[in-house]
Design goal:
The chain has 116 residues and is an alpha+beta fold. It has helices at 7-12, 60-77, and strands at residues 20-23, 27-31, 39-45, 84-87, 103-107. It has one domain (3-107): HIT family, subunit A. It has 2 helices and 5 strands; from the N terminus they run H-E-E-E-H-E-E. The protein is globular and about 40 Å long.
Length: 116
């Protein structure tokens, strides 16, 4: 998918409104429009790459940053101590529906394992 047609690129650029909960030079985080938990936030890098499968060595810092921001948001919102889940769906069979890598941050309820 091209950056010009990417929903998450447009949200990150401010071209499409979202309920932002965090943003910095590397990423933007916003409430999922179809939440699967009481708290369901998507953390999206500003740089477009389709999926974890497409990530390369030069994405290492971005990927680490996304996970650190997930922890920060969980602490700031007060659900870190009780626990939360981070998920990166990859490609069709992995449940990915928007082909711009993103981290799901879910909290506010217990989660079972294994998922899915």
């Amino acid at each position: 998918m091209s950056r010009e047609n990417c929903l998450f690129c447009k949200i990150a650029a401010g071209e499409i409104a979202s309920a932002k909960v965090y943003e910095d030079a590397v990423c933007v985080a916003f409430d999922d429009v179809s939440p699967q938990a009481p708290t369901h936030i998507l953390i999206v890098p500003r740089e477009h790459f389709d999926s974890l499968d497409k990530a390369r060595e030069n994405h290492k810092e971005t990927l680490g940053h996304l996970l650190l921001i997930a922890g920060k948001i969980a602490r700031d919102k007060g659900f870190a101590e009780n626990g939360y889940r981070t998920v990166i769906n990859t490609n069709g069979d992995g449940g990915q529906t928007v082909f711009h890598l993103h981290v799901h941050l879910l909290g506010g309820r217990p989660f079972i394992f294994p998922p899915g």
